[in-house]
Amino acid sequence: MAMRKITSMTSLISFILVIVTSVILYIAPHGRVANWADWRFWGMTKTEWTNIHINLGMLFLFAILLHAYYNWKPIMSYMKNKARSFRMFTPSFNTGLVLSAVFIVGTLLYIPPFSTFIDFSETIKEDAAEFWGEPPYGHAELSSLSTFASKMGYDLDQGLAQLRDAGVEFEDASQTLLEIADQNGLSPNAIYLIMRPEETGEVLELPATSPEGLGNLTVAAFSQKYGLDEDQVLAVLRESGAEAEPDSKFRAVAESASTTASDLYVLMYEKLADGSGGDSVQAAPDIAPEGAPTGLGRLTLAELCEAHGFDQDAAMEILAAQGMEPALDAKVKDLATSAGLTPEDIYNVLNAE
Predict the structure, then answer these.
(1) What is the DSSP letter of 205?
(2) Dihedrals φ, ψ of 224, to 5°?
């Protein structure tokens, strides 16, 4: 078989398949939703589709380089003027270069129609999040039953009993939601729904720290849950520089103010606690990233402690008190993500002690 023909056919087939995987990933839910709901398309998870897309892309890249090698003379002929002398910036080359630059700059400036294409994908993903449901906090599916119940404020024994009554098989509370879901052919979200206590309509006291799953709550749902005046909550959020409506989720509200839902809650709590019967709250420590070194996310907790003179046992206790599950071999980036923080936040929390 001629290598030139094989190269051309491989380029064509891999190109078509890359288009297919690109479309699937374009409409696929965000990773947090896909993992939580065990989203699949044609029997494959988003992670599997992503892996296929990457490797098909590598195949296409290799094939197109070979294709360029075998067709080097025709390519070079495109870069010659009428006198047949080489000229890199021919009209054809310039047109291709300008088109590429327009797409790159338009995307970076986030202007239509480039932003429209991205926004449409985001709309599809947000609709998927509404349909499939979002985890109450980042990577909740990787939490053990005991940790999950603790973070969510559930009665662990009651949750375990509800799982057993529903016929869910598991060994003990140290298993993660993902492990139990895989073992029973369910999604982590299904495990969560089974062990979740029934809604009683009881108005809860406003907690001094950001409640789990705050980012997924709308302003209206939050106000109802904690017996707050919705208009007052909206006024406080808007005073903080956020764009808020009753049906706005706290994650989106926080993003509009260039902050996180947890930090926004601290500001909001100081103004709402007195009116809701809560205790006064101390201002959260300033954990802004100023002064924090770069590249922290790639380090393990042990490496971070060694590099910056932090006591390992003390660091473990401090991070555990922040609601994390610290381990010396855990990446700082993963620890930060699990708590809705940044690696710089982790550093500053430890450095402040």
Answers:
(1) P
(2) -65, -40
In tens, the pLDDT along 162-175 reads 998 888 898 888 88
User: Residue 286 domain-assigned?
Assistant: no
pLDDT value of position 293: 61
Instruction: For residues 16 and 125, state if they share a domain.
Output: yes
- The confidence score (pLDDT) of residue 290 equals 43
Predicted pLDDT at 286: 37
Q: Higher pLDDT residue, 296 or 304?
A: 304
The alpha carbons of the chain give a radius of gyration, in whole angstroms, of: 26
Find out whether 187 and 38 touch, Cβ atoms under 8 Å: yes
**Cα angle at 187 between 162 and 45, to 5 degrees?**
170
- For 242, phi then psi, to 5°, come to -95, 155
Using CB atoms within 10 Å of the CB of residue 272, give its burial: 0 to 12 exposed, 13 to 18 middle, 19+ buried.
Answer: buried
Residues 300 and 328 in one domain: yes
Helices 145-152, 156-165: axis angle to 10 degrees equals 120
Mean pLDDT confidence for 347-351: 80
**In 315-345, which positions are buried (b, 16+ CB within 10 angstroms) versus exposed (e)?**
bbebbeebbbbbeeebbbebbbbbbbbbbbb
* Rounded distance between C-alpha atoms, residue 20 and residue 271, angstroms: 51
Q: Which of 129, 151, 170 is the last residue of a domain?
A: 129
Distance from C-alpha of 220 to C-alpha of 245, rounded to nearest angstrom: 8
Which of 27-41, 53-67, 272-286 has the largest mean confidence? 53-67
Asked if residue 124 and residue 40 are part of one domain, the reply reads yes
